[in-house]
Amino acid sequence: MLKISLKFLMFRVTFIFTFAFLFCGCANQNIELGVNAYNKGNYDLAAKYWNPVAQKGNPVAQYNLGLLWEQGIMYPKIWTGD
Length: 82
Known about the structure:
By secondary structure, the protein is mainly α. The protein contains 4 helices and no strands. The protein has a domain at 27-82. The relative contact order is 0.15.
């Protein structure tokens, strides 16, 4: 099993957030709010911000949710937003 350091994961999330902010415009405020929640350890709130955007096809939000699943913080499920 591949172990990935938390520092490297944070770098990936920050990189993706920066990419989203620069190239996707201000419509992705939920991504920024999700990253802030993630950085504070509030993973449920981060997923709540990212999920609606991910369902609309935003690859950054989809990737960030995938990181939560990859890290074992959350598990794939049908998200109701509650």
